[in-house]
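for the recovery benchmark. tokens below, seq after
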């Protein structure tokens, strides 16, 4: 029998969904003026009950943990199945008794059984997930553009066209698929998500999206990117200084990105374009005559990656250089070796890579969280290991692995979940 300190951890039943949302909302205590019943009703059709986990003390849910299946794009464009974690909470009266640790151990077992290559999440607080083998792998920032100082040196190619919500509902999922195929760090989006992104449906307690959608068309007519945006009106002494809030601008190629930004900064009545969850380094700002017109702020980590299947990840991602080394990955779940624990021989080159378990002596021993942080190329391994240096059996191997894992383009996850 579970004791109060070891609650029962299991998927919830349909009739427990409302209580599950009640527990979740109590932990976050931001109620958004929505009853848990309304949340349960809205989410039920799109939520996998087998993957909505509760920690139960008797009949009462004291912890929540939900996952859904997704796909992560690796450097080079390979797609691997991942376990996306969300809805994590523990009742305030039950904190720091190991309930999250127990739910995490349960989740690692389930994800490894499904043969997911990694787990991914967005953390509410930095210190929570490192101990569970997650590392901060992609980064995001706000960009603020002073439109009147933004002049482009490069003429955009193609056309920008405004589309209504019906056309956007057709076009955006397809453009997004092409975006994520070439964007390391991107994850698959469920089709239903577009109904909410485009304001066709509304989450209880969240404002319905209203705005404009612009599409970029290449000279051959291919739709290569979109911008969703709305605005905040602002007038100063009779001068219009509106803020254009860019909800999302995603493209399948740099030409579409440049053309859409050029379109946005030329908007009448507008002093500022503001965009969140962008890449820390935006390539298009290098097309500005004065790059100070675009400023980055609010830099923070976005996607945390916990590797479950080391060979699958390391042999499927692309590398810009060659190296051969044996790495030992430290991974522990609830006091026992986790699925990533072990020694692996990695033979990597720009032509491909192989990674398999080995008994050979390790050149470098490092934490699974540190490898997870660096594996997409968004965090440098030398940074992820500064406070806990790896064991190096030969000089310079950390630098070698650091250089190997780096990528020319930054990984980027623009999808909140
Ligand atoms: C974060 C949360 C789920 C942790 O649950 P919990 O059951 O208290 O976690 P555990 O008892 O299993 O903690 C395991 C370890 O992580 C540490 N830890 C847990 N939450 C932490 C936090 N927010 N900051 C720093 N350390 C934390 C604990 O101190 C403990 O450390 P120890 O092993 O050295 O003793 C819970 O505090 C919560 O619901 N917070 C509000 C909602 C939230 O932020 N959810 C996460 C969404 S991503």
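predicted aa per position
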């Amino acid at each position: 029998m579970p004791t109060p300190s070891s609650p029962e951890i299991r998927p919830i039943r349909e009739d427990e969904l409302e209580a599950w949302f009640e527990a979740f909302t109590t932990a976050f205590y931001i109620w958004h003026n929505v009853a848990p019943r309304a949340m349960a009703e809205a989410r039920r059709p799109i939520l996998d009950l087998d993957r909505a986990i509760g920690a139960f003390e008797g009949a009462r849910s004291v912890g929540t943990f939900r996952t859904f299946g997704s796909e992560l794009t690796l450097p080079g464009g390979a797609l691997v199945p991942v376990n996306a974690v969300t809805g994590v909470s523990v009742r305030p009266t039950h904190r720091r008794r190991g309930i999250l640790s127990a739910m995490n151990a349960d989740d690692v077992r389930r994800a490894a059984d499904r043969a997911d290559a990694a787990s991914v999440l967005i953390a509410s607080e930095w210190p929570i997930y490192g101990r569970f083998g997650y590392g901060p792998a992609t980064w995001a920032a706000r960009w603020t553009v002073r439109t009147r100082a933004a002049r482009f040196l490069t003429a955009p190619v193609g056309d920008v066209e405004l589309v209504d919500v019906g056309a956007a509902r057709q076009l955006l999922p397809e453009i997004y698929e092409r975006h994520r195929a070439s964007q390391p760090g991107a994850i698959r989006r469920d089709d239903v998500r577009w109904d909410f992104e485009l304001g066709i449906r509304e989450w209880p307690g969240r404002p319905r999206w209203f705005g404009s959608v612009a599409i970029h068309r290449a000279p051959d007519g291919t739709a290569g990117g979109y911008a969703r945006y709305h605005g905040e009106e602002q007038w100063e002494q009779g001068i219009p200084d509106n803020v254009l809030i860019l909800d999302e601008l995603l493209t399948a190629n740099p030409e579409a990105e440049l053309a859409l930004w050029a379109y946005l900064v030329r908007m009448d009545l507008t002093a500022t374009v503001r965009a969140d969850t962008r890449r820390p380094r935006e390539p298009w700002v290098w097309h500005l005559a004065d790059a100070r017109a675009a400023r980055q702020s609010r830099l923070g980590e976005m996607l945390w990656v916990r590797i479950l299947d080391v060979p699958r990840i390391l042999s499927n991602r692309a590398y810009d250089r060659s190296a051969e080394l044996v790495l030992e990955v430290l991974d522990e779940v609830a006091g026992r070796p986790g699925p990533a624990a072990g020694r692996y021989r990695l033979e990597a080159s720009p032509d491909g890579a192989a990674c398999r378990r080995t008994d050979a002596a390790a050149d470098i021993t490092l934490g699974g969280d540190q490898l997870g942080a660096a594996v997409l190329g968004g965090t440098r391994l030398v940074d992820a290991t500064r406070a806990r240096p790896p064991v190096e059996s030969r000089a310079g191997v950390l630098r070698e692995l650091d250089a190997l894992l780096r990528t020319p383009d930054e990984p980027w996850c623009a999808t909140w979940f």
